[in-house]
Amino acid sequence: MAKYIIDIETAGTNRSDVIEYLTSKIAPPKNYKTEEAVRKWWATAGAEKIAEVKNATALSGTWGRIVGVGISQIDNDKDNDKNVIIVDSDELVALNTINDEITSGDWLIGHNIAGFDIQYIYQRAIINGMRELAVKMRHILHAKFYVDTMYEWTLDWRKRVSLKEIAFALGAEVDFEDDGANVPMWFEEGNLHAIERHLENDIALTRFVYERMML
Questions:
Q1: How far is CA 149 from the centre of its chain?
Q2: Separation of alpha carbons 79 and 87, rounded Å
Q3: In which order are the strands placed within the sheet that holds 65-73?
Q4: Residues 134-192: pLDDT tens digits?
Q5: Smallest Cα–Cα separation from 70: which of 98, 32, 40, 51?
């Protein structure tokens, strides 16, 4: 049994059929009567609405995709930690990395890991036909082989608090400009280095918070 800090980063779907399905009910207001008015609406407000729907799929394991993963096998001696940071447009790269690093008997540590990361990996593994990984994630979740730092801080699944806020409260240096909400934008811009840096920062903050709380 090993302990791993894990964090995934996600982006909106790139499947045209999913985008078509989810945006099928978007339409210009009924008072837009002329062809020119409708065309301008689709080019402005309509395009924004479609982009909003696509970006929102990043938070759904059903529709979105994993574009990055950070994994750190923690040891009592930090110098012995094994860190893996992967960012790739091919979701299978991240999924295969997780499958190679994690076994069903390992413990996973992360922020909101029970409510997001484990479930997301599980769903994407099923969609991509990776039964072995799906079974691992289901077992880890059901056996409660995880430490969720958000729950350990709030002791209430209904309450939410960000990793950065907890770390800041505990005295860590925190870059609040390094916002995970920017990951889909960075990914679309091809700024993979920014996503890698964000993963590295989140892994470091998660370890800091974990070590302060799990005395």
A1: 15
A2: 24
A3: 82-87, 65-73, 3-11, 107-110, 146-148
A4: 999 999 999 999 999 999 999 999 999 999 999 999 999 999 988 888 998 999 999 99
A5: 98
Give the number of other Cβ atoms within 10 Å of residue 122's Cβ: 20
Burial of 69 from C-beta contacts in 10 A (0-12 / 13-18 / 19+): buried
Whose CA is closest to 54, among 88, 17, 91? 17
The predicted pLDDT at position 215 comes to: 64
CATH number at residue 87: 3.30.420.10
Does a structural domain hold residue 88?
yes
Q: Is 129 part of a structural domain of the chain?
A: yes
pTM for this model (two decimals): 0.92
Note the pLDDT tens digit of each residue in 58-87: 999 999 999 999 999 987 555 566 789 999
CA 31 to chain centre: 40
Q: Which residues constitute the domain of residue 62? A: 3-14+58-213
